[in-house]
Design goal:
Strand order of the largest sheet: 4-5-8-9-13-14-15-16
Number of helices: 21
Radius of gyration: 24 Å
CATH class of the largest domain: Alpha Beta
Distance between the termini: 47 Å
Number of strands: 17
Shape: globular
Helix content: 25-40%
Length: about 525
C-alpha cells in the first residue's frame, strides 16, 4: 500500500493525463507521451519551476497533507459505559449531558480560564489569516478561548515603524490584539503573541507586552506543516524590496536589475519571502524565557513541531526546567497558509505517534516529580470525537487541543454567507434556512440577546467561529456524558481503546479486546 499521492494534487493544481493508470512508485503516467502540455507536477515544473513547490492559489487557501498516514485518531474508539458517574451523582435525572462542564484552566497558577478546551493556534502574516482576522479574533474572544497571533505580523506590516532595528509601532498587530481584547468576556481566554527569529530581533514580543498590554507570549520552534521558517508570496516589487531591507530572505533578489526586468515583463508575478531557521540551545532558550518574564510577560508558552524524538524531548524537558505555562506539540500533516507541498506530506512525525511520544516523555518527568507545563496537542483536529480522543491519549497532562485550519474555515464560511446576504445572492443550499443573519446562523438569537445593540458589530465570520465551537462543545459534552465523565479532569487514557494491536503498541492504549479484562473476570466469576 502506498501512503503517498505523487505528481498530482488539487493543492498544486496538477493532475495526471492517464488518471486511471499511474505508476505507483513515481506517480507518473504509465505512458508519458511526447506532446503532452504538462498537467502533472513534473510537467508544470518544466515551465513554472519553483512556483510548483507551494499550494496554490496563495492567499485565499489553507492546505494540509493528503498523505494517508498508517495511524490516525480513527484507529481509536471511545469506550462508553452504562454504570456510574464521575463528577455528578449517578442519577438518571441528574446525570444529563447538559451537566457536563468543559471549562478548564491553563498555566502555572491556573489563572487562564477557558470556556472550551480548544485553542486557536498561531496564524500569522499569510493573507488568508489577515483577511479573516476579525472573524477569528472576535470568534475566539466570545467563545472564551485562547487566540494566538502568529509569526511575522510586524515585519510584514507596511505601516510598521522600525527604529534601530526594533519595532516601535505596528498597526496590524495593534488591530489584531485589539479586536480580541475588545470582545474578551468575563476574563476568559487570552491573546498570545508568537515570535520566530525575525520577530525576536525586531523586539515584537517586548512591544506587545509593553505597548499593547499582552500578557502571554509564545516561543516558536516550528509547526507540523514544515521544518523550515515561514514563507509567503509577495505580489509587489516595492514590498519585496522593503522586506529585504528589513532582513528577510526574499527570492528572487528584488534588487537585481535582471529580476526587476523579468518581474515587470510578467515572467513571474510573485516573490517569495522566507524566514530564517531557528537554532535551539538550552542556555539561550532559558535566557530568552527570563528576558520575557523580566519584560513583563505573565505567561510564557512554547510551540514545537513534528521534529525528531530528541527535539521533542528537548521541548518537554526545557519547558519543564523553565516552568513554562503551556507547551503545544503540533503533529505532521500541516494546516497552513503556505508550506512546500512535498515537505508538508513527507516530513516529520505524524500526530498520533508524536502525541504518544509526548505522553511517554511527560510521564517520565512526572514520575520523577518534575514540573510539567500544561500540554496542548495539535495537528489536524477538527471534530469533537477527535478532541475527546486527543485529551484521553494525553491524559492527565493534556489540557486542551490546538486548532487553526478548521476555525479559519468556519470564519471564511461565515464571512462568505454574510456577504451573500448583503448582496441578496444567498446560495440555494443556504437559503433553505432563511434570508437573514438571524435566520441562517443558529446562534444569532442567543448572541443578539447577550450583546443587544452591539450584536450589529459582530462580523458574520465571528458568528461562524462561535457557532462551530458551540457544535464542538455540545458534541464533546455528549461524548463525555456517554463515558460518565462530567468534567475534563476525569478523562483518562482508559476512556479510549485501539482497534488494532499495532496502534496499541504505538500509543500504549489498550487494544479493544483487552480492555477491562480483570474487571470482566471478576464480574463473570461472581
Amino acid at each position: 500500500m502506498s501512503y503517498t499521492k505523487l505528481n498530482r494534487s488539487a493543492a498544486t493544481l496538477t493532475k495526471n493525463r492517464t488518471e486511471g493508470s499511474i505508476s505507483p512508485f513515481s506517480g507518473m503516467c504509465v505512458t508519458c507521451v511526447d506532446g503532452c502540455i504538462g498537467m502533472c507536477e513534473i510537467g508544470k515544473s518544466a515551465y513554472r519551476g519553483a512556483e510548483v513547490l507551494y499550494p496554490q492559489p496563495f492567499g485565499i487557501i489553507t492546505a494540509a497533507s493528503e498523505k494517508d498516514y498508517p495511524y490516525d485518531l480513527s484507529h481509536f474508539s471511545i469506550m462508553g459505559t452504562a454504570a456510574g458517574a464521575y463528577g455528578c451523582e449517578a442519577d438518571s435525572d441528574k446525570a444529563t449531558f447538559e451537566k457536563v462542564t468543559i471549562e478548564t484552566k491553563i498555566g502555572r497558577d491556573k489563572s487562564i480560564k477557558l470556556k472550551v478546551p480548544f485553542v486557536l493556534g498561531g496564524m500569522g502574516s499569510t493573507n488568508v489569516a489577515k483577511q479573516n482576522w476579525d472573524g477569528l479574533a472576535i470568534g475566539a474572544a466570545i467563545s472564551g478561548t485562547i487566540l494566538t497571533v502568529g509569526e511575522n505580523v510586524c515585519g510584514m506590516d507596511d505601516d510598521s515603524e522600525i527604529k534601530n532595528g526594533r519595532i516601535v509601532r505596528s498597526k496590524d498587530l495593534e488591530t489584531r490584539v485589539g479586536l480580541y481584547k475588545n470582545w474578551q468576556t468575563d476574563g476568559y481566554g487570552t491573546v498570545v503573541v508568537q515570535a520566530n527569529v525575525e520577530d525576536t530581533r525586531l523586539g515584537v514580543q517586548e512591544y506587545a507586552i509593553n505597548k499593547l498590554g499582552v500578557q502571554a507570549v509564545e516561543l516558536k520552534w516550528g509547526q507540523g506543516a514544515k521544518d523550515i521558517g515561514g514563507e509567503v508570496k509577495i505580489k509587489s516589487l516595492k514590498k519585496a524590496q522593503e522586506l529585504r531591507k528589513r532582513g528577510y530572505i526574499v527570492l528572487p533578489d528584488p534588487e537585481d536589475p535582471n529580476v526587476i526586468a523579468a518581474f515587470e515583463k510578467g515572467s513571474f508575478k510573485e516573490f517569495e519571502r522566507h524566514s530564517r531557521l531557528g537554532m535551539v540551545e538550552e542556555e539561550s532558550f532559558m535566557k530568552r524565557v527570563e528576558e520575557l518574564r523580566k519584560a513583563g510577560a505573565k505567561y510564557v508558552f512554547l510551540k514545537t513541531g513534528a521534529y525528531r524524538p530528541a527535539d521533542l524531548a528537548r521541548a518537554v524537558k526545557y519547558a519543564s526546567k523553565a516552568k513554562l505555562d503551556m507547551l503545544t506539540v503540533d503533529g505532521a500533516g500541516g494546516g497552513t497558509g503556505m508550506s512546500p507541498w512535498r515537505m508538508m506530506n513527507e516530513w516529520g512525525i505524524p500526530s498520533v505517534e508524536l502525541w504518544s511520544l509526548t505522553y511517554q516523555y511527560a510521564h517520565q518527568l512526572a514520575k520523577k516529580g518534575e514540573y510539567l507545563p500544561d500540554i496542548v496537542f495539535a495537528g489536524g483536529i477538527t471534530f469533537e470525537d477527535q478532541i475527546f480522543k486527543a485529551l484521553a491519549l494525553g491524559a492527565p497532562y493534556v489540557k486542551a487541543v490546538g486548532m487553526a485550519r478548521s476555525p479559519l474555515a468556519a470564519a471564511m464560511v461565515g464571512k462568505t454567507i454574510g456577504k451573500r446576504i448583503q448582496e441578496g445572492q444567498i446560495p440555494v443550499y443556504v437559503e433553505r434556512f432563511g434570508s437573514s443573519v438571524e435566520e441562517i446562523f443558529v446562534t444569532a438569537p442567543e448572541l443578539k440577546k447577550k450583546y443587544a445593540k452591539k450584536f450589529a458589530e459582530l462580523p458574520p465570520g465571528a458568528i461562524g467561529v462561535y457557532s462551530y465551537f458551540r457544535r464542538l462543545s455540545q458534541g464533546l459534552r455528549q461524548l463525555m456524558a456517554g463515558n460518565r465523565k462530567f468534567a475534563l479532569s476525569y478523562i483518562t487514557r482508559n476512556d479510549i481503546a485501539t482497534l488494532t494491536k499495532d496502534a496499541a503498541s504505538i500509543s500504549g492504549i489498550s487494544y479493544v479486546l483487552d480492555v477491562d479484562k480483570d474487571e470482566v473476570a471478576k464480574i463473570l466469576k461472581g
